[in-house]
Amino acid sequence: MVFNKAALLSALSLAAAVQAAPAASVGLPCDLYASGNTPCVAAHSTTRSLYSAYNGPLYSVVRASDSHTTNIGVLSTGGVANAATQDSFCAGTTCKIKVIYDQSGRGNHLSLAPPGGAAGADVLADAAAAPITVSGHKVYGVYIAPGMGYRNDQTNGVATGNQAEGMYAVLDGSHYNDQCCFDYGNAETSNTDTGNTHMEAIYFGDNTYWGSGAGPGPWVMADLENGLFSGYNAKQNTGDPTISSRFVTAIVKGDSSNLWALKSGNAQSGGLTTGYSGQRPAGYYPMNKEGAIILGIGGDNSNSAQGTFYEGVMTSGYPSDATENAVQANIVAARYQA
């Protein structure tokens, strides 16, 4: 055997480089949050699994022709939604999204929002109104028009009082309005406005009644009840950018200390932008979160807004920036396409 010094040195150099390289984050969003010691307590998506081991239903649909329902699962464990099941079941009629299942195992499923202090009963979303692809496969989002909304007032493990939490959502950056309020997150259990500090939810839209970000909007802001906030100032935070991407990652998180943060990013490429990180607005500390989960509506069932939801989670604890960066990288890797 001929000794080749150059080849040996090359091999040793490669081995050293591999050993020195940081390990890539492995897993889907809720795997990553668990690794960061801020586990998901709610995980909702109509497009894909949010745990690498998840093989259950993502959502259910009810068809107009006979009111029968069926569950829409995944193509494989940890994979994307099996939209063909919906297409077959709903052929020749129409379907609505009845339940969006919680993948965390805590039973925090989302179903039709009941009447609240601001509006009467909502209606279900059209199951076929938001077709896209994820990882090259056809899937459907949750297309919320005014009057539609989902909720769970009896949750398990969701932050209450001044407990820390985080949340993200992947949304359609082109579907919004200036009405109140297209939210996803923590809200009142009574479906009524019980005062400042009783909500902590992602808001997306271009409402300027309470405040705004830079430019014309839309913006990712936080609904903390009786106010949509882009930062400490109740009016404008020029650090919170206008969203121009077709798919947007939106993040809100609040610690048990007087600290909260707001982030956004293009769900198809790149990283996250921190729109705000710092002290809570005046009158919003300590928090009095109640632990209900809402989608597409405000805490008192204000239901005049619109938007499209694809996936989102809520966590126990205040996620680190490193964890959120890994989640954003996974979202980008999922290849959302219109």
From TrEMBL:
One Pfam family of this chain: ArabFuran-catal
Residue ranges constituting the Alpha-L-arabinofuranosidase B catalytic domain according to the UniProt record: 29-337
Disulfide cross-links: C30-C40, C90-C95, C180-C181
GO biological process, one term: pectin catabolic process
Pathway annotation: Glycan metabolism; L-arabinan degradation
Record localization: Secreted
InterPro entries noted in UniProt: A-L-arabinofuranosidase_B_cat, ABFB, ConA-like_dom_sf
Signal sequence, renumbered to the chain: 1-20
Active-site annotation: E225 (nucleophile), D300 (proton donor)
Gene Ontology MF terms in the entry: alpha-L-arabinofuranosidase activity
Family note: Belongs to the glycosyl hydrolase 54 family.
Name of the protein described by the UniProt record: Alpha-L-arabinofuranosidase
Source organism of this protein record: Moesziomyces aphidis (Pseudozyma aphidis)
